[in-house]
Write a structure and sequence with these properties.
The protein has about 425 residues and is an alpha/beta fold. Helices cover about 30% and strands about 20% of the residues. It contains 13 helices and 18 strands. The strands form four sheets. It has an eight-stranded mixed sheet with strand order 3-2-1-4-15-16-17-18. Strand 16 and strand 17 form a beta hairpin. Helix 6 packs parallel to helix 7. It is globular and about 65 Å long. The two termini are about 15 Å apart.
Length: about 425
């Protein structure tokens, strides 16, 4: 197959010949029996998400591996990491293998299960980390995401344990005693709305502690969904020491601010903006963008968190936390980072494909688009402008904060090892 007229990382137009799942040739004027017209789209290595909630097993009313991977393909992703807070929790080799096999069966993108750090996400006893690492799923990322491993001794033991197989602990940084009953970012707006505040220090204190622990035991630490300017400074300091610490930011924390809770298009207290960690201030957003640009923040991860309509369309205090994000992530990053001049397309590829694959230890993903590399390719038209319509999502859930917004760009096609999963914006 020949993919014609594409611009690798925004460069000059070329054609790409794909054969046997790999890039066989890159040049101009290539011919073959089957062609796909790229129309001048930007070609990126297939995107990799280190933080996706697929909900299966247990919450198939919100999402399944099939619908979640379809959503991922529509967003340009060729690999996702499925978080462990399913029902049952992915804390054994049996459960992670179930998720991995479902991913292989539906194959809209690669699915790499994330194992729980503690049994049942309860923070009391280490889960079967070694068994999950040795399983068919070959788990290398472990997280209790949704809950913090707040016990320092248990966190130290987890960091020590995963060193044996080059694993990484991905921490949800939230000191539970500082966030009991918290509903949104602590500040002037939370006070005005009468909602219990979620202080920045609750995130920052855990990050500081865990950076010190990771340095002490010489292990790999990854911080999930960084959301505050203070967190950025702590991580920058840890990296200056040469410690093995990485972190991620979500698209929504790069674009949205806590004032939407008070001033959304449909009025105050709209639970569509309720998320964990909460939307922060404009100053935090600017700090996160700058940190992503300078490499202090390593990657963008969606934290795609689907919920059925009844869990979001309710009063604020009872509503579930989370937003879907796979199908809008690249557009939001273009809006927040490319159109502001903070990143070019090579930088986007680095932070949404190359480095996430490296952190997750995915050998066949996140590779430069060159001869001999796996043909995991995303074609993206940055000139398109699209109004976000949740009813058109492949995801089973519709809890997007971008409904009705016009965002830049559109995923034209996605190829997984040379096989089209999306063509002309539609699932294949």
């Amino acid at each position: 197959m020949i993919i014609k007229n594409v611009r690798i990382l925004g460069g000059e137009p070329v054609d790409i010949r794909v054969a046997d799942g790999e890039i066989a040739e890159i040049g101009q004027g290539l011919e073959g029996p089957e062609t796909v017209d790229g129309g001048g789209a930007i070609a990126l290595p297939g995107l990799v998400d280190l933080h996706t909630h697929l909900r299966e097993p247990g919450r198939e009313d919100a999402e399944t591996v099939q619908t979640g991977t379809q959503s991922a393909a529509r967003g340009g992703y060729t690999a996702v990491h499925a978080m462990a807070n399913t029902s049952p929790v992915a804390d054994t080799a049996g459960v992670v293998e179930q998720v991995w096999r479902l991913g292989r069966e539906f194959a809209h993108c690669d699915v790499h299960p994330v194992g729980a750090v503690t049994v049942g996400l309860e923070g009391k006893q280490l889960a079967e980390l070694g068994a999950m690492a040795d399983s068919a799923a070959r788990v290398r990322v472990f997280s209790d995401d949704g809950k913090c491993v707040d016990d320092a001794v248990l966190m130290r033991r987890a960091l020590e344990y995963v060193k044996a197989f080059d694993g990484v602990i991905a921490q949800h940084a939230q000191e539970p005693r500082l966030t009991s009953g918290a509903q949104m970012n602590e500040g002037v707006i939370s006070g005005r709305l009468g909602l219990t505040g979620w202080p920045a220090v609750a995130e920052e204190a855990i990050i500081a502690r865990d950076c010190l622990l990771a340095a002490h035991v010489g292990s790999r630490l990854h911080i999930c969904h960084v959301s505050t300017a203070g967190s950025v400074e702590i991580i920058r300091w840890a990296k200056s020491k040469g410690w093995n610490v990485t972190c991620e930011v979500t698209p929504h924390h790069l674009l949205l601010t806590d004032d939407l809770v008070e001033e959304s298009p449909v009025g105050a207290y709209n639970p569509i903006y309720k998320v964990n960690p909460p939307l922060r201030t404009r100053a935090d957003v600017e700090a996160l963008r700058a940190a992503l640009a300078d490499g202090t923040i390593d990657i963008v991860a969606t934290d795609h968190a689907p919920h059925p309509v009844e869990d979001k369309e309710t009063e604020w205090s009872a509503a579930a936390m989370g937003m879907v994000g796979l199908e809008t992530a690249l557009s939001v990053v273009q809006e927040a980072m490319v159109e502001t001049g903070l990143l070019d397309w090579a930088g986007v590829a680095e932070r949404m494909s190359v480095v996430p694959a490296r952190i997750g230890r995915l050998g066949g993903q996140g590779q430069p688009l060159e001869v001999g590399a796996p043909a995991n390719i995303t074609l993206y038209d940055p000139s398109a402008r699209t109004e976000v319509d949740p009813s058109a999502f492949a995801s089973k859930s519709r809890n997007t904060p971008y409904e009705g917004m016009t965002l830049p760009g559109r995923v034209v096609a996605t190829f997984l090892r040379g096989r089209a999963t999306v063509l002309e914006g539609k699932l294949v």
